Amino acid sequence: KKAASVSDLSPEKLQAPVAAQADAHYARGHALEDSDVRAARAAYLTALELQSDHLEARINLGRLLHLAGELDVAEKIYRQARTASALLSFNLAILMEDMNREADAAAAYRDALAQDPQLHDAHFNLSRLYERTAQPREALQHLLAYRRHVLQFGE
Description:
The protein is built from eight helices and no strands.
């Protein structure tokens, strides 16, 4: 066997093992969520250290931080995402609601719906948010969209 040349070490070839390692840490974190949240968070952090754009690790870590009451840290994790995701935007919207930042929450729900118009829970939550902020027309619009989805597909 001969040693690899520099041309054999393309960025794609070098990133593949790193991505596999990040996926392994993500899978470990996912498996640990119900039994050891601290270890799950650490696994997700390791996945992100290896691959900063690992979307699933970012979403799950943000959710765990949110559930633990670490709202500012969760927001930072979500906002550092380089890849758009309806689920990430949806989770960010819920976080913004919990931080009493209604305008930011509405924007994140709208972003989630722009990425996935079938995300009926975003319609429901946005309807509630608009109702609380005295925007009845917008509230009704999103409640009707939610209702249409439920009637067509069920919950």
